[in-house]
């Protein structure tokens, strides 16, 4: 039972981090209807800046730098490329983001090389003991930070002018533009926010018990894709639910690996995707996604 | 995106087209007599990539359905060929056919999702194929050989073996496995391209394009949208399977690492660079994307910025990736329609000049 609880807590905390990534993904999709495959490399960029800067300027300043850098990369991608691509379908824009992702990921993994970069976080490998279960401190912090950020965003969506502009754009971009919403700004800010969230997520994906940032981190970030789609690409609460489902599934599968030998080694990596397939079979637009309706 | 004009509107153009194709064909046949193994292998990889790219272009270019899972179907084809020919003991041509069928069945199993999801949604869902596929490739060791993969038995067609032995010399050129496979690859590619053209120009192609451009209107006009989406997914996965068989024959070994997400991304890059929805474009894009790393490896010493692998600089493979990543972005920004679009535009310009020259020569006849 203690093992199960421990895994559950860990799973929820990892899930919260996935939810952060998925949230950024959903924000971009809502604002621009672009499925953003660049997300994994935004995350890598944020993590890389934190890893390289922390010996020079200390952890907190490096974290801030990483967040700003990832936000900037996101904004630049939007401003320099997507805004200027005049294509008929959103599908082609998704492929453009794949092109950008190839570029960024190749360059970043080349810079990382075979190294495993530490992020210099203050929590180290300390653990908390809560009764019978032990949890890494980093996991607790991850849960708290991710929870706070997600709550802040949900509130911002509902109550700030930015959130209203974002929702109006998602609802009907043309009408929103006529009402004075600046679409360019909305999508720019969406990309910047997504980048910033990805950088925060990068931090928590690379701290203890993970050894650090390496070239495989981008693949880890890919698990946020099923999180986003199984919750529903256009639903912020769906991103939260999706993240938690993916995180808990993965952690439980990895934790009980010895009992699940018949499924093969490393089933934890494939499990989120299997869950995604099952959910998509039952609900093609995700758990909370709005079903597309068309009036003819 | 695909050219809307029906083929060979006038007999004159048909002759022109044949005259254009003849040298290409001649060059393709002559190549193995002159080029060394390195280039033959590169060319064979390009052919396999071209078959795969044609398949995904049917799906992504014509039907507008994004797939990141194409590498999975290549793996399905390659591994089924190996398993069916070495373990089950099917004759190799049958094993190859069956492997393509297996890839199609895999695509069919995914069709409940492929038929219902559209566009980029499907792209994310197909990521599952890659990750689950890799998991299977690494873990189903009796069939896949696990991490180290398995050797590929050479193809044997009516007693003719596509391998280095028995020795064969044609016109003073020793014909090893690469030279022999070259012709097999050419035939497969030509067949694959012709079939895809037929699909695109016939009713199915029109239906797919209608679904891509206006799903609802297509449905109203009686196109069974979900069935077509599932169908084109199966077809594209069969193309993937065929490409997988060819790549396995060329490599002579299948390893799971080859069939990762990067291979899928490569295929998407190919069709964007070549031109979405065009068969010729897919072939051109495949040649570009798969030959670029080879070129950079071969002539890397002569180029600035490209360094030896492992020396800390930009290795040829990385340089190639960066280049075609940038090419994808540049094509969408500046060259809608890709290389195929460029070709048609150039062709149109030349045609205009031609017409203009004719009309200038005979001004009286114009009134």
Describe it.
The complex is a heterodimer of chains A (about 300) and B (about 375). Chain A is about 70% helix and about 5% strand. Chain A contains twelve helices and two strands. Chain A has a two-stranded antiparallel ribbon with strand order 1-2. In chain A, helix 6 crosses helix 8 and helix 10 runs parallel beside helix 12. Chain B is mainly alpha-helical and about 375 residues long. Chain B has a domain of about 230 residues. Chain B contains 15 helices and six strands. In chain B, the strands form three sheets. A two-stranded antiparallel sheet of chain B has the order 1-6. In chain B, a hairpin with a 2-residue loop joins strand 4 and strand 5. In chain B, helix 2 runs antiparallel to helix 11 and helix 13 runs antiparallel to helix 14. Chains A and B meet through helix 4, helix 10 and helix 12 of A and helix 5, helix 6, helix 12 and helix 14 of B.
Overall radius of gyration of chain A: 19 Å
User: Which sequence of SSEs, written as H and E, runs from N to C of chain B?
Assistant: HHHHHHHEEEEEHHHHEHHHH
Please provide the count of β strands of chain A.
2
How far is the N terminus from the C terminus of chain B? 36 Å
Tally of strands of chain B: 6
The coarse silhouette of chain B is globular
Structural classification of chain B: mainly alpha
Q: N-to-C terminal Cα separation of chain A, in Å?
A: 55 Å
**Count of runs of 4 or more consecutive helical residues of chain A:** 12
Strand content of chain A: under 5%
